[in-house]
Amino acid sequence: xxxxxxxxxxxKFALKCAVMVYSDTSAAFATVHDVRVDGExxxxxxxxxxxxxxxxxxxxxxxxxxxPAEILPECVLARTPDMIVWWARTQFRVMFFGGQEKGARDLxxxxxxHPPLIFKVRxxxxxxxxxxxxxxxxxxxxxxTAPYWNTDSRGSVCAGTMRIPDQxxxxxxxxxxxxxxxxxxxxxxxxxxxxxxxxxxxxLWTSLKDKNQTFPTSxxxxxxxxxxxxxxxxxxx
Length: 237
Prior knowledge:
This protein has 237 residues and is of the alpha+beta class. Helix content is 15%, strand content 29%. The longest helix has 10 residues. The protein is elongated. The protein starts with 16 loop residues before the first strand and ends in a 5-residue tail after the last helix.
């Protein structure tokens, strides 16, 4: 495992306390020890005391993992300190295409109908899935593969030209959607079947270019997971 700490500016840190974890094969407990300094200036651990909820709360705040109070819009499906999941109703969006695929340039900058979508932001990474029905999903709702290049079988988005927003908050939802659709869809990402259309990805979006119609969700492929599985997947350890 590799870990890094990046601290801006000139800061002077001092060791204040230590957490000791004791465990066997079936259970574990922890104690907190203040750090003291002897007559020669060497630090040592004072006797331990039980770990408390108050201490864990202070530790969490110090590590920057608290979530500010927010009024969540109806579209938000799940929220943690480092993740937010929401859904977007079917709508028309402009799409931009790049890469060397024959026919992609002819699709660039046009307006297209889109299926209802699920977005998940975890840390700085974006995941996207699609829905078969234009209504708020439940935990058991089966998801569809998002029919877009730059998005792999897990729904993970290759950022490419995407300008990643600075925040992961309810207020940044529109910024993440705009960043995703404001970037170029340039290439397939992994071995994933993006659509059931008989002429594939290019055929699907060619048939929908500048069309005033509902996205044909029958052309979506199964992602083989429910919403609850999508939310829980790829958690950072």
